[in-house]
Design a protein that fits this description.
Strand content: under 5%
Radius of gyration: 24 Å
Order of helices and strands: HHHHHHHHHHHHHHHHHHHHH
Distance between the termini: 19 Å
GO cellular component, one term: cytosol
Pfam families: Proteasom_PSMB
Structural class: mainly alpha
Number of helices: 21
Protein name: 26S proteasome non-ATPase regulatory subunit 5
Shape: globular
Largest sheet: none
Organism: Globodera rostochiensis (Golden nematode worm)
InterPro entries: ARM-type_fold (IPR016024), PSMD5 (IPR019538)
């Protein structure tokens, strides 16, 4: 743990140093003029332009950045790279814009104001119509998913995008593992706002969340996972969507927690973390035999440090929720687990560890 803390602190220090340099460059008019001078067109100058674009994204992602007008011309230059005739430049620019939107949500509204959503949507439609541009089309579909949360009306403003998201969820088993996961992640992101949930609940004939959640349950059964969570007034709607996953879903998710594959474990634990924000989830999971036992079980040998920490965070969430579905004896076990922390070993486990050494 000491080594981890030292490495983590070093990483934080390095990131702060990089941010300080970016802030200084952002204030330097001469530096910005130099950046503009390097935006020469042509494939032969692509590397130079994308060095400028890296600076633009780094500046946008600063936690305290707000002066979009100062970078407007550099932002426009990055958006201009979304030209499907240049496959590498287009996909790279799309990736950079999507990453910036995900890292700095404050940028999403600005991107919407300057028309980036429509630019990406037109790219999406163009590449969909061209069979030779399948990879760009997939990138245009998945990578900028955060961009399409700029406002709830995005679901209806960009109908082909929304339809493709749902179609990919419905046909998830026709795609490779990566695209399956991205399809469900995209669905979760575009459904994350309150307005989007209202639109979806009012347009079941167009966008069937019941069908989508049923397919998600099947995907989890084949080791795929993703889900979204949301605040108060949406609880009834979320609970209804959850029930559409099917009665076996909680048991299935707990089986995934015990899976020997780390990625499956972590995915299942994250889904549990999201679900157990909601009081309505506890009766479903506490009704599964062994749920609390799994949470307090320290003998799960195939859990790595990250999984143990996440499981401890999950226990803390259950304790704090104080659900009536957790009886007094179970709550005592959970509190004891929380106090002792994620890495505490029972005496028997210590002996076994020493013997292994």
């Amino acid at each position: 743990m000491l080594c981890y803390n030292i490495l983590h602190q070093n990483s934080v220090t390095q990131n702060e140093t990089k941010r300080a340099v970016t802030r200084a460059q952002l204030k330097d008019d001469n530096f910005l003029r130099e950046m503009h001078s390097r935006l020469m067109p042509g494939i032969e100058n692509s590397e130079g332009r994308f060095e400028v674009h890296k600076f633009t994204c780094a500046a946008l992602e600063l936690p305290d950045f707000s002066d979009f007008s100062r970078l407007r011309s550099l932002i426009d230059a990055l958006i201009a790279e979304l030209d499907p005739r240049d496959f590498l430049g287009c996909t790279t620019a799309l990736e950079m814009l999507a990453e910036t939107a995900a890292t700095a949500p404050k940028c999403v509204a600005f991107f919407g104001q300057i028309g980036l959503l429509h630019t990406v949507y037109e790219l999406f439609k163009h590449t969909k119509a061209e069979p030779d541009m399948g990879i760009i089309h997939i990138g245009g579909y998945f990578k900028p998913k955060k961009l399409f949360t700029a406002d709830a009306d995005s679901l209806t403003k960009f109908p082909e995008f929304t339809a493709d998201v749902f179609d990919s969820v419905y046909r998830f088993d026709a795609f490779d593992v990566t695209r399956r996961q991205l399809a469900f992640e995209t669905l979760a992101v575009i459904c994350s706002s309150s307005g989007a949930k209202q639109i979806l609940s009012q347009n079941e004939s167009l966008f069937s969340m019941q069908r989508a959640m049923s397919h998600l349950a099947v995907a989890v059964a084949t080791k795929q996972n993703s889900l979204a969570a949301a605040p108060d007034w949406e609880e009834q709607l979320l609970h209804r969507w959850f029930r559409w996953l099917g009665e076996p879903f909680p048991k299935l998710l707990l089986q995934c927690v015990r899976d020997p594959i780390s990625e499956v474990q972590m995915g299942a634990l994250r889904v549990l973390m999201a679900l157990l924000r909601h009081q309505w989830a506890y009766p479903h999971f506490c009704a599964v035999n062994g749920f609390i036992d799994l949470l307090v079980d320290r003998s799960v040998a195939n859990f790595d440090a990250d999984a143990l920490q996440l499981k401890h965070a999950l226990v803390c969430r259950v304790v704090d929720a104080a659900s009536p579905s957790v009886n007094a004896g179970q709550m005592e076990l959970l509190r004891d687990y929380r106090v002792k922390g994620p890495f505490w070993l029972t005496p028997q486990m210590e002996v076994a560890t020493e013997g292994a050494g």
